[in-house]
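Please, is this right?
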Amino acid sequence: MSEPRQSVDAVIIGAGFAGMYMLHALREQGFTAQVFEVADDVGGTWYWNRYPGARCDVESLEYSYSFSPELEQEWEWTERYATQPEILRYAQHVADRFDLRRDIRFNTRVQSADFDDTTTRWTVATDDGSRTSAQFLIMAVGCLSSTNLPNFPGRDTFAGASYHTGTWPHEGVDFTGKRVAVIGTGSSAVQSIPIIAQQAQHVTVFQRTPTYAVPAHNRPLAAAEVAEVKAHYRELRAANRLTMVGYGARSPRGETNASDASPAELEAEYERRWAAGGLSYLGGYADLLLNKDSNETAAEFIRRQIRATVNDPAVAELLTPTNVVGCKRLCVDTGYYATFNRPNVSLVDVSQQPIEEITPRGVRVAGVDYEVDCIVYATGFDAMTGSLLKINANGPEISLQQAWEAGPRTYLGLSVHGLPNMFTISGPGSPSVLTNMITSIEQHVEWIRDCVVAMRDKGLHRIEATEQAQDEWVDYVNMVADMTLFPTCNSWYLGANVPGKPRVFMPLLGFAPYEEQCKQVAADGYRGFALV
């Protein structure tokens, strides 16, 4: 076996927002690092997800780095909710501004990573045949980066063009005059269907589970609003880190319970949140994700909006969810429900009679053939674990695949017992996808940076989560989830969208308490870790 051609302090896998900030943070502390990125540019999720209508559901003034006051003052966002091209331009600007590209190897896929206990170093092998030695392996592969493509019978026989929203052609797709099938009704479908319908001859939407969507009320950002935020950016960032979701301090969450409110008060609060738009809809009351009856008041308000928007009562009924609102990712839309009033859009319910097969000419359901020219798979991701498990990371005695055979287990969402000197940014067991991702990324990166600095200062070479600390953490994450309504529906938070994937509630609820716990672990000399 050839000797590693390169030796660095850390290998970072992924050059999205997590990988870029991790590289910058380590460099500032005098560490050497090499980033490997399978794409040909930075951006991660925002490099790949170029489907029509792709935009962030956290407001752009808050979905941005806070580590550099100069950066946040100089960058100009144009819309309340930034589009994918604008977010990608921002990522590229950050890479250029901090000269990150010189330590990123693009178009390079990591094939394996092996830890040697005698040297306490990782050897990382890539598809170009090179090998790199590093003390630390840092996974910055993203929570929503491993696409989930259902294995429908006959999928590969379709004669037309097929697309997945998570790996969209960079040159774009023109659907003019085309008959298009869209499979799925999650966030990417909710964003793309209205735009595809404006182009296509006909759009047939195949829906298994109807989704709750709240209006975005997107708009250009006014100069006065931007100036006001920039004048108090430091305070806003600090306030966001004291919230449960890492953002939204500008539209505070209600502290009273819906169970204590009168019907008139509930109606007024939901109307106000609906008119404001965005994910703060579920922030009206403190108990909406804890109390089924309270949740039902918020859910029923959305159902009434759907029935009032969709002209055909039968279609409206199919589009109306019956489950808890918020146990799946709440979607933020622009004209989604109204799109089903268009004469060129039809809805096919596949909840009782699933898609039988993909034929050369289209989609077959219950013996009926829907002939189409293109199929769009808006079927989401193998979330939180998919990309991590593709790395083939091997500890001294166990691989990550073996360690997670029955579902992902971590300590703090940062470390896995059996895989020393490996860190995961926004891994399962951390708040990650239930927060503003950039807030969570920054918190994780800073914790990892401080940890490796402390190790260097004390002459330590090896860190590993203990099995007991990991077990206790997994129990804690499950206990918190079980106090809420999140586990009540089959969502990608549980891995329920991927056949055969173990059902484990992966994210932890509550950013601010989590950050405090991480600080306390570090203050206690990295309690729960074995340090050598």
